[in-house]
Amino acid sequence: MMKIRNIIAVAVLLASCSAEKTYKIGVSQCASGQWREKVNQEMMAAQHLYDEDARVSIVCAYDDTERQIRQIDSLADSGIDLLVVAPNEAAPVSEAIARTRQKGIPVVCFDRKAETDDYTAFIGGNNVWAGQTVAEYALVQARQMGKPRPVVMEITATMGTSPARERHEGFAQVLSGNAAVEYVCINSDWSSEQAYAITQRLIAADSLPDILFCHNDGMTTGVWRALEEAGMQRRVMLLGVDGMPDEGISYVRQGMLDGTYVYPTHGEEVVRLALDILTGHDYERDNSMRGQMVTPENVELVELNSRELMKQNHDLITIHDKLEESLVQYDTQHKILLGSLVAIALLIVAVMLAIRAWLQTRRTIRQRQTMNEEQTLFYTDPSARRLHDIFDKPEDDLPPPRSQDVLFAEQLNEAIRKHMSNPNLKMEELGEELGLGRVQLYRKVKAITGQTPVELLRQMRLQRAYALLGSTTKTVAEIAFEVGFNTPGYFSKCFKEQYGKLPMELRETKD
């Protein structure tokens, strides 16, 4: 028996040696919004771009610093190999980053910096360059106005964040002290509501500038709303930052904005940097990326390129889902090699089991003979009749038999609901909980439901989301993450394919 165990152990060891390391990358986003959703989608697509096997998990703090600190600590305790973090506030998040580093986990600061030098690398847009680029464009436009000293105003975002400080620094470097314009700066936050309130005060005081620069495109929507209500849409030349296809770029094409700076996302480069750190490759500690200015002259070309890139990322994620199903065939072929090694061990085990079964059969026959004699005595002895009546339960009182398929379906339903919120749930994990291999799970689910496990999981997630939309006040993003979708955008697309309406459209009809 010891030799048999050794043979099986060697076979399992050979199989495990062939498995590659899966690098777990945790991402802590400070906020939601189209720009960050695009980054998230690019990082999810990048899991499948490189030779190394990566698994990206993304959480969002929704502008709540305390929540982000808790999320960072939770990610650090969950067994991740590397943390990517976009700090909501530079100073408070620094302590959570320090705790993560103390556990030996590399930390990549993305887009925003923390007030600490204890991080592994930084990657993000060059915000000083962004501010300078917008300022130079504003200066060119001011000179073309034909006024003595046009007023150029900057409404900043929250100055406690590094992007706001650096964008202001770059903008002020170009315009502060420039005799060609009068430069004015007003501090605000990242919200369109504050930008709206500031613009209302400027209108009331008859102090509107000639050119107005906001630190992101979302803020410009507040400015535009205030101008539109006052019938002064074309009174101010409006500039922003982010340049998303459905926001800033679209605003330029529609005439709401006179220009926006495309702040680069490049989520695939974030994952590439993380993998270089984890695999011991050379990498730069400071990685700054530059974007470009979108104007009415180049907006159509930039919009076309941006939408095409987003479509490619979405297609890559879809292709990966399809590959999940195709891997069933690969899994079968891969196990042939292991099967050949195990076959010898099984043959030996089979012989020994046959001998053992023969011996057990003889013992069972002798036991049955003894039981038959005792049972005969039990049924024929009048004194035992009453005991017999107690234990002889009528068949009508027994529960109706249930098919194995029904029992399996109930177990599968319970397992999916238990793990539904995990966006990285693998079919191997689901099959392991049900006591089935990947191939067995695929065939069983396909035979019972007509769907693949991946299709069934997606359908149940969407059904759960449908129920939450009608029975809770949670946001679409919160529901998307709760039912296991990595990004609200991809969730909305799948939801519309399933029910013919976007989540918000469904909620409005229920209202």
Describe the structure.
α1 packs antiparallel against α11 and α2 crosses α10. This protein starts with a helix and ends with a helix. It contains 19 helices and twelve strands. A six-stranded parallel beta sheet has the order 2-1-3-4-5-11, sandwiched between helices. It has a six-stranded mixed beta sheet with strand order 7-6-8-9-10-12, with helices on both faces. The chain is α/β, with parallel strands linked by helices.
User: Main sheet, how many strands, which sense, barrel?
Assistant: 6 strands, parallel
Low-confidence stretches: 1-18, 384-388
Overall pLDDT level: 85
Rg from C-alpha positions?
32 Å
Major sheet strand order: 2-1-3-4-5-11
Overall 3D form: elongated
Sheet-strand content, in percent, reads 5-15%
Measured distance between first and last alpha carbons: 69 Å
Q: Counting H and I runs of at least 4 residues, what is the number of helices?
A: 19
Structural class: alpha/beta
Helix content: 55-70%
Number of strands: 12
Brief summary of the model shown:
The protein has 511 residues and is of the alpha/beta class. It contains 19 helices and 12 strands.
What attributes characterize this protein structure?
6-stranded parallel β-sheet; elongated; disordered N terminus
